[in-house]
Design a protein that fits this description.
0% of the residues lie in helices and 51% in strands. The protein has 108 residues and is an all-beta fold. The chain has a 5-stranded antiparallel beta sheet, with no helix packed on it. A 3-stranded antiparallel beta sheet has the order 2-3-6, with no helix packed on it.
């Protein structure tokens, strides 16, 4: 089985002096398929994050970023062969999403 994820977001300009004072850009990436598990990075420290996964079925999850702005969250009830868009919205304004498209799906 292969995973392909495309992320949406904007990279701060290296010439922007404020960019170096802000936390990293929020990012989300899949880490496991069964259950679908994602890792968030670049969120604000201790930010509460609501996650929504939408595909043929939908699922929600919650997480709290650690002091470095990272978290891991899992979704239940999603088929590993669905195309799924996952959105993460933080309580302090952080937001990111990605689309997980299954290119190859084999059944054992």
């Amino acid at each position: 089985m292969a995973l392909v994820a495309a992320a949406c977001g904007q990279t701060p300009s290296p010439s922007d002096p404020a960019a170096s004072k802000k936390p990293g850009r929020p990012q989300l990436a899949p880490t496991d398929q069964s259950p679908l598990t994602v890792k968030g990075t670049g969120f604000r420290p201790h930010e509460h994050v609501l996650l929504a996964a939408k595909g043929l079925k939908s699922s929600r999850a919650e997480a709290t970023a650690d002091s470095s702005g990272n978290f891991i969250a899992s979704f239940k009830g999603l088929k590993s062969c669905d195309s799924i868009t996952v959105t993460a919205t933080g309580s302090k304004g952080s937001r990111t999403e990605f689309n997980l498209s299954q290119i190859v799906c084999t059944y054992a």
